[in-house]
Structures are given as structure tokens and as C-alpha cells.
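Let's sit down with a protein and look at its sequence and fold side by side. We need material for that, and I hope you will provide a protein of your own picking. Once you have written the record down, we can walk along the chain together.

***
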Amino acid sequence: MPDLSVNVDGLRLPNPFLIASGPPGTNGTVILRAFEEGWGGVVSKTCLLDHTKIVNVSPRYARMRAGGARSDGGGSGDEIIGWENIELISDRPFEDWLDDFRRVKDRFPGGVLIASVMEEFSRDAWAEIIGRCEEAGVDGFELNLSCPHGLPERRMGAAMGQEPEIIEEVCSWARGATRRPIWAKLTPNITRIDDAARAALKAGCSGISAINTVLCVMGVDLETLRPLPTVEGYSMAGGYSGKAIRPIALRMAMESAMLIEAEFPGRSLSALGGIETGEDAAQFMLLGADTLQVCTGVMIHGYGLVRELKRGLERFMERHGFERVEEFRGRSLAFMTTHADLVARQRAARQNDTHGTKPAVLTDVQWRADRFVQQSEGLLNQP
């Protein structure tokens, strides 16, 4: 049987799958459940020193099904492909979090527990929250620099993570407060994620977590004419997650992995964004991920999802003869190139094509209105 264990930043995980920061890691009870089910690690829901700053509203979720979005979560298709949330970070007292961290580590001393933390632009606040979490026994930290919709007026979350100079300063504060692993969780709501990743790694972060949710508006209720999710008749842009964002997450994970390979060898990448199967996980690992995080998938399928994730990854490894994940991690990065290079490669291939194989459309003048759908399908890489 393939070995799924990974060693990342001095941490040993029995498998590469972690609960991502969010509702599935919102208190000690659910974190314990995650370890009982066999998750390789848990990233807690994001905590901060003063929980009174956090006030959530309800409803705060909206779902996109294959057939569309409705306020009741319905639609013409059953499959949930996207999930919007306008939920803030944890509203629990920080002291309660410290108690939970101790309780979890007492029960699962070998379990990898990562504290997700967020603070305002204050060196002292970052040093305090990291120091106190470390005293409670956590194994490492994830800096939430990427929540897309919460507390921008306090320069927190994505308001901090969209400015590389601020990222570098905050990460340097965090690095100065602990010797334990630190991952910077990055926002996709930025022009170049490698600029943000470079700033975090330059400041001394052990690795990158990418990506957080994509800023979105889920939809508008065509009966009430109000945007979703609707709170007292109003709404706001929120974070989009689920399998619909996986292609975006794969691209940004690839860019982060290529940066690490070129400029920061030995640093780590924890990838997240739409992972619901072992096959999804394999794609992220082929593009350089060391570990995989799952949040929305657990909210849809439950904590037992980890068993299918592990089985799916094992099947992929068995099919290709891989015994350890390091044998294929990053293998697909070598096949990422530029459009100019693709043109040159295809030109050379056609010159050597003795069978005269031609695509459905070579140039724009060949498009025909009566065959538009068929010609489009003929340009697909997959059926």
C-alpha cells in the first residue's frame, strides 16, 4: 500500500490532508472529531485576542448548485459546486481557544495542530497571540492575511494581504515571536500571488497556504430582487469556495510552487481550493503542494470525507507505481510553459506529422455558424 505520510517544516503528518481554517475547526470538540476520523492535521478557525470585535450575522451562506443558486439552497441540479460565506473569524474568547488547544494536544499529542491567527497592524498584538498559542502547545501557525470580507476597516485579513510590504512586515513580526513553523495564508484577490508569497517567504515564513476564498456575489433572488445571502434585505460581497474555484486555486498553487522552487527551495506549500476527492489532491501535489487543506468539502460531506480522500490518492499512486508522495510531488510543473513556446512546439509537431492530422479549426476564418458547437467541441482537450 502506498505511504501517504509527509514531513513538512519539521512536522510529520500520517497523510497530507488537513482541516482548513473555518467552521470545521471552530472548537475543540470538532477538532477532536477530525483527529478521530484520521485527518493528518487541523488548522483551527482563526482566533484573535479580542473576540468582542467579531459579530456574525445570519444567514451567512449561499450555495451554487449545478443548476444555479437559490436562497433556499435549491436549484435544478443537486450537485453543490460553489459556496459563498460572509462569516467572520472566530467569535469565541481567546482564553477558550487556549483551553481547547491544550485539551486537543492532551488527547492527541502527536496530532499536528496549527493555530490560525489574525490581528491588527500591531507588532505587540502579533507577538502576544503567537506567544500565548505556543505556550498552549500548538505545533505551528497559519497567519490569516486573506479573509476577503471581514474587518477591512481595521486593516485585517485581505486588506493586509493585498499589500506585499505589509505582508513582509507582519510576517517578520510573527517570525520574531516563534521558532515554530509559520504558514502565510494568501488571498487570490490580488493581481500576482507570487508577489505576496515572495514577501511572506522573504520575511521568514516556513511556507505558504494558498488560496483563501475568491470575492464574489453569489446571485440575486429574482422574486425579492435582493442579493444573496440576504440579511434584513441587504447583502455584501463574500468569499467563494468549493469545486468551482479549483482551477483558480490550481493556477495560484502552481505559481506559488514555481516561486518556491526558484527562489526559496525547501519552503512548503499547503494548497486549498475545491479539493473534494483524492484525484483533486493528486493534481495539487503534481503542481507542487506538500499538503492539502479542505474546508467546504467537509461542510458538504462531513469529517468522514478524509477516508475517501486517502483512498482516492492511494488509487492514483497505485495506478502509476508511486510508493511515496515525494515521488510525484511537483512532477507536472515542468510541463507548464508560455504560449509562445506552445506555438513553437505545435509548429514543429505539425511539420513532423506524416498523417496530416488537423484540428477542427486552424484559423478564425474557418468558424461556421451552423457548426459552431461541433467546432468548439473539436477544440477540447477532453471529451
About this structure: DSSP finds twelve helices and 17 strands in the chain. The first strand starts at residue 6 and ends at 8. Residues 339-378 form one domain. The mean pLDDT is 94.
